[in-house]
C-alpha cells in the first residue's frame, strides 16, 4: 500500500503583492484547496506546507510575506522553505518523506505551471507517484513574450495537465483523488 502526503505549495501572502494577482480567482481555488486539506486530514495524511523565498520584494524574507495565507488551516505537519521552483532542492522534503515511508504525493498550490508543475516533475523523477489536483492549483493569465498572445489561467492549466498526464502524474479533481485514496484503503483493509 502506498503512503500519501499532501503538498500545499506557495499558498503565501507574497502573491497578494504581485500585479497579476486576481482576487476574483481566489474563492473557487480556496474552496477546493480547503476541501482537499480537510479530506487529507480525515484520512490521516500528513499535510506539508512549502513556502517560496528568494531575493527582495514580496518573496524576500525581510518582506514578512513569506507566510501561509491567513485562511489556510493551522497545523501543517511540517513546513519547508524553498529557494527554487521545486519543493525538493535543498529543502529536506525528500528525506522527511522517506523517513515516513511516503511514496505518493498529492500536489496543490500556487502557480499551477511553475512551482506545482516543477515539483510534480522532480517528484516523479525521484520515484514518487504523483496525483496532480488541478482544481486545487491556482495560476494567472500570462502573455507570450514573442507572439503577444495572452493565455488565460484555464489555457495554462489545460496545458499543464496535458504535459503531466500519464508521464509525470495522474490528473485529479479533489473528489477523484479522495476517491482514489478511499479505494486504496478498501483494497488494503
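-> sequence recovered:
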Amino acid at each position: 500500500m502506498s503512503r500519501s502526503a499532501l503538498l500545499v505549495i506557495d499558498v503565501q501572502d507574497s502573491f497578494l503583492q504581485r500585479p497579476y494577482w486576481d482576487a476574483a480567482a481566489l474563492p473557487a481555488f480556496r474552496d477546493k484547496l480547503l476541501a482537499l486539506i480537510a479530506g487529507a486530514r480525515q484520512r490521516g495524511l500528513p499535510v506539508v506546507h512549502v513556502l517560496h523565498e528568494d531575493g527582495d520584494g514580496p518573496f524576500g524574507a525581510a518582506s514578512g510575506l513569506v507566510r501561509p495565507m491567513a485562511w489556510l488551516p493551522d497545523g501543517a505537519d511540517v513546513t519547508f522553505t524553498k529557494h527554487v521552483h521545486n519543493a525538493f532542492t535543498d529543502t529536506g522534503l525528500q528525506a522527511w518523506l522517506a523517513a515516513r515511508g511516503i511514496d505518493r504525493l498529492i500536489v496543490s498550490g500556487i502557480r499551477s505551471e511553475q512551482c506545482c508543475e516543477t515539483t510534480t516533475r522532480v517528484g516523479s523523477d525521484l520515484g514518487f507517484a504523483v496525483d496532480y489536483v488541478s482544481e486545487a492549483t491556482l495560476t494567472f493569465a500570462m502573455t507570450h513574450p514573442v507572439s503577444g498572445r495572452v493565455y488565460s489561467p484555464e489555457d495554462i492549466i489545460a496545458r499543464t495537465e496535458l504535459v503531466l498526464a500519464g508521464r509525470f502524474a495522474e490528473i485529479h479533481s479533489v473528489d477523484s483523488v479522495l476517491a482514489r485514496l478511499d479505494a486504496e484503503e478498501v483494497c488494503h483493509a
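The CA atoms of residues 5 and 44 lie 9 Å apart.
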